[in-house]
Design a protein that fits this description.
With about 170 residues, the chain is of the alpha+beta class. It contains 6 helices and 5 strands; from the N terminus they run ααβααββααββ. The longest helix is centred in the first third of the chain and has 23 residues.
Amino acid sequence: MAERAQYEELARQLSAVGAVKRDMGRILPPDCPAGSAAVLTLLGRHGDMRMSKLGELLAVDMSVTSRHVAHVAARGWIERLPDPADKRSRILRLTPAGLDQIDELSRRTTHLFAERLSDWTDDEVGQLIRLMGRLRDSFGDCRSTPVRLPAPLAEQPATAAPVVQETTRTPAST
């Protein structure tokens, strides 16, 4: 098992990933913010779906999902079709314009990574991909797993069990 200092350094490095995400946000088209890009990407990867499923995949509240969907629908990137199984629900589907937008997002992201990681070997990029995937798998669905926080050291007896604290925090957008 890793030492405490390694976990502390990992926390610092992951905090710094925010700078990478901000840089990625800067390359998005002005009319396609990160939330909209995430909606398009998920629909492109998973196909047609209900808004509730999209909200689960985005790991955000339904009101946030609704705003993102309204944004991409207003630009003609998706259509909202009646759900044959439940007329009260809608199925979200990419339009040809939405597929074009996904291609543009992919082109921009690929260009950014190719530019910034030009001095990395293919093996190093592959290692990063594998390790980030493994890290994400280790955390699973952050919304449904209780976070175990130790009591402050001054209050913690030597045999204290970790305090389980439910969290409703929403993970950052993808």
